[in-house]
Each structure stands twice: as structure tokens, then as C-alpha cells.
Design goal:
Elements lengths: L5 H20 L3 H9 L5 H6 L6 E7 L4 E8 L13 E5 L18 H7 L3 E4 L10 E2 L14 H20 L3 E6 L1 H10 L2 H4 L2 E7 L11 H9 L1 H7 L4 E2 L4 H11 L8 H6 L10 H7 L4 E2 H13 L9 H8 L18 E6 L7 H10 L5 E5 L13 H15 L7
Parallel strand pairs: 3-4, 3-6, 6-7, 7-10, 10-11
Antiparallel strand pairs: 1-2, 2-4, 2-5, 8-9
Helix pairs in contact: 5-6, 9-13
Length: 406
Amino acid sequence: MVEPSAVQVAVIVALFSSVLLSSAMNSTEDFNASNLQRPEAGLCAQLIEPSGFPCSEHKTLTKDGFILGIQRVSSNSGNFRRQRGPPVLLIHGLFVAGDAWFLDTPNQSLGFILANRDFDVWVGNVRGTRWSQSHVSLSEKDREFWDWSWQELALYDLTEMIRYVYSVTNSRVFIVGHSQGTIISLAAFTQPDIVEMVGAAALLCPITYLKHITARLPLKLVKMHLDQVMLEMGIHRLNFKSDWGTLIMDVMCNGHVDCEDLLTSVTGKNCWFNSSRIDFYLEYEPHPSSTKNLNHLFQMIREGTFAMYDYGMWKNLKHYGQLKPPKFDLSRIPSSLPLWMGYGGNDALADVTDLQHTLKELQSKPDLLYLENYGHLDFLLSTRSKEDVYDRMLAYFNSLGTYSYD
């Protein structure tokens, strides 16, 4: 493993020293700012119901004590006697939450489109995000509250959300995931007790391997070992709406990365991204995550593996009974599970080469949609995603023959 240079460490330490000094002068400032941003109303009242869609708030509890917020959305047709279609659980990506599926107009946003096609839409929000920031015994101020990575999101959060929707609807759940939502979905599907509750999955920008990413900013952060330094400095929560989060980006952009187009440096070129609504997007995004989660993702880039969190040899022995973390075996995903995947040639995170690696390990051959000029965000926040992506996804669901969605 290549260690960060002395100059890089000095820059990072100086940055965090100034932040920690400021925090010491007013140790509650960051948390108070976060609390002030927290909405009194839930996602339903803030974003979904104002567009005319019936929505209800639900809560469920993970095995490790996190209280997750889930929303259920219905068609705005006003015909409440009309039978709901199959349940669909939407699983968001990193630094966003369930609101990401509703940020464009009802004719463009996948959450609204599914509801108007009479799907029984359920909106997932993983721990730490704005709509899932509670625990039975821990506070956001506690280090332990942020002691998790996408491994827990897969094996605890997604597991519990699927179980909850399955128990309420008495029906197998369709999964739609984007980016990190596909990482945790595919990891969860390797577990027999989870996948038996799933009817089908549509994965946008699917990721299991990150060895060949070309995104400039993440690669720079990986090279600087920023994730490891942050953990050593005791920074366990990533909140880019806080003062220190903004400062990190300012330092990184000063001479390291051209951040005039920050999205491109993170995700690659997005040809159809709806840039006219950026100010509205930023009212909701980004959401917090944990430094350990970022560390786990960076481990995937450094090591080229799709595996559980690497604690180091001796701690791995304690956690897993072996020196290296166990891999998530994609061949364990049953061939009977219908899979649909949409991916793009401009995606600097969900690289085509890494996807080919994934496809070789699966038992089944998923239905694939390749759009050469699509980037990572084009599949989620795009002026053309309905015609190019969502209509084709719905056609695939329709082809399964179990339901009719027209």
C-alpha cells in the first residue's frame, strides 16, 4: 500500500487541526447546525405530497438499533379503489437519500412515474441520512452512531426494509437501486434469507468492483489516503453541508482538482443531467454518511475486491475468524432472480470493465441497457431518463408476466 507523502499529511493535518480547534471553541456548533437543518416535516410532507401524490411515513428498526424512515407513495390519479401493483423499494446512492427519486417533475422522476403506473412505491433511506437519523440508544454525537459501512447497509438496513415491505404487502419486493444502492443490493442478494423476499431487481449504474474507476476527485482522495487520515483524526461523520466539509472541498479544489465542474470530477461527464434544477437539488443533497463507509469504498478501489470491511489482519481474525475479510460471492445470487441493469459509457464510477467482471461472476445473464453517452447522474436526474431508461425498465418488469403496468 502506498503511504501518503509527508507534505500531503501535513496539509491534511493542518486542515483538520484548524477545524478541530474551531470545534473545540464551540463543540456543539456542527451539531446545532445539523439540527437546525433537520426538517420538522418528513419527506412525504416536504417533497412528495406537494406534487399531489398520497404518501405515508413508516418506521422500522434494524437489528443493531437504527430507526429507518420509509415512505409509501401512491398514484395521484385519485382512484384509491384501484388495486396497487407490486411493491417496489427504491434504494438510493451515496450522499443522497430517498428524496433523490423525486427531485425532478412528476413526468421525469422515477418515484412519481412508478406511482402513476400503479406500483406500490416504497422509498428507502439508509442510516445517517436526513430521514433515518435515529437510534434506540445512540445519538448522532456518538462515535458509535457512525461506526458502519455499506456492509451494514446491505446486511442490516436493506434487509430490514425488504422484510418490512414484504410483511406489510405479503408480496415479494421489486428492488430499484442506483450506485451505492446497487452495491448493497447485490451484496444482500448473496444472502439466501434476503433474496427469497425479492421478486426482481433493476440496477442503475451497477457496482460491485471499483478497480477501474476514472473519476478524478475520488482517485485523488484515494491516493492521499484521506479516508484513513480522517479516521485517525477521529472524524467519523461526513457532512458536506457542515463548515468543515465545505473547507475540505475548498482545500481539495485549490490546486488539486478543477472543481469548476465538481460533478464531472466525481462522476464523469453527464450529458443529460438536469442542471437547471441544481439549486433545488442542493436544498436536499448531499446527505451525511460515515467516514468508515468512505473508507470501505476506497478499500474496494485500492484492493479491487467486493468484500466485507477490512479491519486489518488481527482485527479481521476477531470479526471474521480469518485474516482477510470474506468476499461477497456473486455466484450465490440465484439464477432465478430476474435482473435488469442500465449502465453508461460516460460513467466514471460504474466502469464498463468492472461491470463485465460482475457479469462473469453471476449465474444468470441480466437484461442489459447500455447508453454510450450516459454518465452516472444521467440515470437519476436527467431530462431524458424517462424515455431512455425508465420506460425500458418498466417494459422489462412487464415482460416478467406476473403483473401488468400499463
